[in-house]
What we know:
With about 575 residues, chain C is an alpha+beta fold. In chain C, about 25% of the residues lie in helices and about 20% in strands. Chain D has about 240 residues and is mainly α.
Amino acid sequence: MTAAADNQDVIWVEEPEIGFWEATFLPAIVEGLKTTIRHVTNYQPVTQQYPEEKPILPLHYRGVHRLNRDEQGRVKCVACMLCATACPANCIDILAAAAPPQWPDRDKYPASFVLDELRCIYCGMCEEACPVDAIELTHIYDLTGTSRNELMYDREKLLDVFDQTKDDPRDPTRTRRGRLGPAAEFGSLPTVAPATPITPGDRSAQAPAPGVIHPHKPSDWSRKPS
Amino acid sequence: MADLITTLLTIAVAVGAILTTVAYLILLERKLSAWMQDRRGPNRVGPFGVFQPLADGLKFLIKEDVIPARADKVMFLAAPCIGLLTTLLAFAVVPFGPVNDQPAYLRFIIAPHVDIGIVFIFAVTSLAVYGVILGGWASNNKYSALGSLRASAQVISYEIPLGMSVLGVALLGGTLNLENVVAAQAQGGFWQWYIWTQPLAALIFFTSALAEANRLPFDLSECEQELVGGYHTEYSAMKFALFFLGEYTHVITMSFLTVILFFGGWHFPWIATPGSAYVGAWLVKVLVLLSKVFSVIVFIMLIRWTIPRFRFDQLMNLSWKALIPLSLANMIAVMTVRQFGWNRWWLLPISIGLFCFVGIIGVSAKRAEIRHRHGASQGAGLHPLGGAGI
Amino acid sequence: MALVVEATRPISAASGNRAHPLKNHMPTAIINNQQIELKEGERLNCIQAAQRIGFEIPHYCWHPALSVVASCRMCLVEVGEKKPDGSVVMQPKLVPGCQTPVKDGTVVVADSPKVKAAQQATLEYLLLNHPLDCPTCDQAGECGLQDYSYKYGRGYSRLQEPKNIKPDKDYIGDHITLFTDRCIMCTRCVRFTREYSGTSELQVVARGSDEEIDVFPGRPCNNELAGNVVDLCPVGALCSKDFLYQQRVWWLKETSSVCPNCSTGCSIQVDQNDDCVYRLTPRTNPLSQGHFMCDQGRFGWKYIHAENRLTFPIRRKNGQIRTRDWDDIIPSLQKALTKAAARAPEKCAAIFSPWMACEEAFILASYLRSLSPKFRLALGPVRVAGEDDTYPKDFYGRPLEPVRFTIRAEKCPNRRGVSMVLEHFGSVATMGDVVAQASELEALYAVGGDPWGWLEPVQAEALSRAALTVVQDIFPSALSEQADYVLSGGSFAERDGSFVNYKGLAQEIRRAIRAPDGARPDGRILWELSGRRGLFSAAAIRREMAEAIPAFAAFAAGSLGESGVILNEHGAPQAKVVAAVEK
Amino acid sequence: MTLTAAQGTMLASVATSAVGMWLALSPRAMRLRIIGAAIASAALVVAVTALDGPRGALDDQILFWLFAGSALVSSVFMVTSREPVYAALWFALATLGACGLFMLLSAPFLAAATVIVYAGAIIVTFLFVIMLAQQTGYTFYDQRARTPAAAIVASWLLLGALLWSYQQWQNEPVNVAAGPALTADANPNPFSQPDSEATAHSMRALGRSLFGDYLYAVEIAGTLLLVAAIGAIAIAPRRAEGTI
């Protein structure tokens, strides 16, 4: 490795020369104590009291799935199994069948659609993969059950989730006949709120906007050797 | 016979009080930690979580008690008992109030007038390491074993400066009896507190006490990141609780000792002096002592979230390279002062001087090391720190 | 076609007239600036010639087994000729590659911008009315339109008008359904029924934008080769009702195997997912059957997942089931056979099924002979149904010459292989002998395997009188109900081994799925029964066979390759080894 | 010289206990070892009873037997235990029993010092060594040791001699030069007379005795220990040499 490459890739950090007071550790301890005591005396908790205070989740939160219904109330899914293909956790199990004769516009539909909510990692790939926008992830996050079987969501249960959430302003049906609705445009929409509300003057979130990653400045914390 | 009954009663009251206090100290520590970290701490059980210790205790009692399959059962069960027992035993000679002029039921000590009080405490607490080492060994788990080995190495190392720092006080007072130590300080008033003449010893004692009690920043035996809990990895339910209680009792003992040895015990100018004869003076004295102890405990809790955990070699270096020589020097200073009958106030500048001396040695040694490293690497034509340095 | 030939003839004639500088000049053609040499009498079109250099010219309507119609226009290429003086004259227009023969001096350019523009335009036209219902289309994943759209297409359509949607035809045949709107009118299916099966059920009806594939009223496409039109269809228009919506094809794992349903031994692929077979598809193998397979084979595998299969071994004593544990049964069977062979070796017999693989027959025969050289070995019943069914046929169902496909009457895959093994071991009894003496037999080891039954009730009754009856089968039978030992074997998709077809072509069958719980591949059962250590390995047995039996000398390599190995007529040592398809 | 009955009992029981101990150390049958340990313990108790028992209040006597018995039994177990860790722990218990005896003799400092030095530091170090030394099973020399017999003979000779001389000394109680006084109510030593003003007389007496009467012995012993420690460090393999 050449010296030039060294200079680019490796930042040499020299051990700082410490003075007498640093060597005794006392100033550091006093500084630290000041910080801790300041936090005790100037107590501003940021904890959210969960069961009493519900969090306001960002729009892009991915919770329990739902299977959308089309305009006629039928399951929108066409059993193409692209979600099952895309699923990295292999949690979707679909049995396809020819659509019933009273659905002339459809060839295929899911005779059974089982989604293992415990196995799911809530990555949203199924939502991305779905060509007919039938599967969507909702804001329901408090998913509990008393058995594993209870959390194997079948088609009816997933449709129920749709019925429960379709009128929730945070979970609108994101598509209208193939056109994405406003709620789908995560990129341009402002988030409703950060996942955790921030108390005004909270020190931990003061300087930057939450969630912003700062380009780091190496000059701040290291000196290049002369 | 009456003596026996009062002793037994005192034991019962003291042990009960200590264990309850420990439970609530844990709550306090959790609260305090939460406050320092802008959290709320336990607040679910009762108002402000005051019943949390009860809930914890209940949980400990009804939790499944696991004994690992190939563990040494006898030792596995004995270890936590030893751990708690020894720390509780140390309390026998700690005077937690005024002693001398009280009736038997108000003497605030389990075993009064033990001449070797401090030595007894050291002897008994040094047995506490058995609980740790046996717990680690009997668990048949390599992490536990490592944790217990660390703990024993640490405790052995820190017993030496702990004992030697106390020797200064013992020499100045001419006694090992804790009651007499308190009495000697109380007689002389505020400026007779040993903190003024033995500040270095106080610092060493406090540091070593933290290490003895396995408290942060010296809790290497149980550091979660490296040893998944250390010697009590395999412990659950009540056995774990015993370890925990033992550790906290140790903290209380050490706080008591700090106050008694260096901060005048129950003495406080104008409020609680040997001469104060008003009604309920004994109560005031007890309260003074307890509030001093409480302050020390809170300080220990503050330290916990202030100073990061030491690395093991740093820990050993601190003990063997700094604390032991310093305490030895301090002891020699006290002996010299006593032998030649100098004014005891000489000890203050001597302590400060010793502290500075060691600081300067530390700094210059570090600088010399860095300079040497620089010189070596430049001589070899390498990048600084590039070759021989790393 | 005629026009092209007209255009090229003068040039080739001219080149032929010129005296060539080199006498022994090999005819060469140039494809995409790469020279290929043509063999004597070889007739290639541009697509095949391009395959020589590993270049794919996209095509839909052309199929190597069918006549050329050049209707899809996907294979349009630039064609020209290299004159002896080195100059190249290209034809001004693009020509269909499937229809253009390649001969000495032909220059084909298949990757020029012009060609690419033509391919894009063709694809855009093909996709004009094609519905984009790939999510629900069974062909998605193995669809010619999808693949070519990715490789050669333009990515979007400029069509503004609504698509031309035609109603689906659910009943083209018992096994076939037609999604009319997906059809791109390549007419492969029509040509197949006309030229290959000869039954001519399929037809293009109407013209222009109304063009559709259809059957004649009342004459559905139900011939024995009808299933092939599904494979031939490059898009998802013709679908198999059997496989419809069962599984997405990208989930299927393919295993090369051999169809066991008749002695033709068609090369097939077993498509399975999660130990469940979903379909069989023919595998092109010029040594065995060519490109296709019959519907009997294509749909005749359902027994693999039948409910009533033997899924555990049984040891009976006095009619009571004693155990169902392999670890217990194999040693006790070994002991029982050894005892029987020691007591009365001449009264021991085994029936070998023509459904066994050669390796299994070999292990069993050599094991039994090692117990006693007098062990009698007999070939089990060979099921024959009617006569060989040949295609093409004419309108009235009469076979026509030349024969292009034969469904054999002999409904078992390996009669030949097993009898070759038995011949080697000698003293072969017949099934009739064994049945006749059954009541005196000390031990009878009967191997079944024919899922459609192999024993008459009378035979079963007779055989069950043997003192020790061992049945190795995949389905319960009258014999297995009473046998002392029942060994639950595996179907062809669960076994490793080799089948020898009617003309002596040995091909490997490979394990595609795991046998159901408690059933074991026969090879493994016999491997353990014969006391061998380790895991069953068909290749190891084949090497052993090649050493022991001269007729199987061709097995020496262990592997038989994708196409199989032709054993000589009588299994002579100089059996010819054919490792791969000759191109 | 003639043996008294007490002396005869004592010597016989010491011999019996030696045999018992030899049995207890036998590597073979477990039952044999248990019987041996029982014989040894019983014989030792008999040997001790041959001496004059403790004098004083009943509770003191009970405590004496408790501490002495536990020390004795623990040391037998320590010697016979096959698990080194258990042996170390029995040693700790034996030390604690001895400390209890010190306490009974009103020598609390000695008791505490013994705990600190032995039960605390030394035993822990011992455990360290044991844990780091033998991880898997026993080495062959632990399985068939030749030393027990020799060790028992040597140590029991020493024990017998000690008890003998102690009994002699006990029989002639007024012997001023018998030895240093470690306890408050032992015979006075002219150099270790407690000061009248001292409250912590036992400590002072001990200090006087150690650093007055036996200064050279103590210093030589200390130097020896120092040399031993330095030698151990020098002999111990260096990590840099890759032997650890």
